[in-house]
Design goal:
The chain is an all-beta fold. It is 0% helix and 57% strand.
Length: 68
């Protein structure tokens, strides 16, 4: 994965949004803006999606379409 790739968050790691009737998971997808390698060797990605940008671990994401 790299900057410019279109990704979605795997269902297990979808962010939860509070609604008047309780909590609800949403299908979060977006474009990778920035990648950073952590001390552990795993990468974290800043993903810009519907509600702004959020950080996700590489294990939480799957590529929909690669930037070519």
């Amino acid at each position: 994965m790299k900057a410019g790739d279109l990704v979605r968050v795997k269902p297990r790691f979808q962010p939860r949004v509070r609604h008047p009737r309780g909590w609800e998971q949403r299908d979060y997808h977006g474009i990778i803006l920035y990648a950073m390698e952590r001390d552990t060797g795993f990468f974290e990605y800043q993903v810009y999606g519907d509600g702004g940008s959020e950080w996700f671990c590489d294990l939480e994401l799957e590529v929909i379409s690669e930037d070519r």
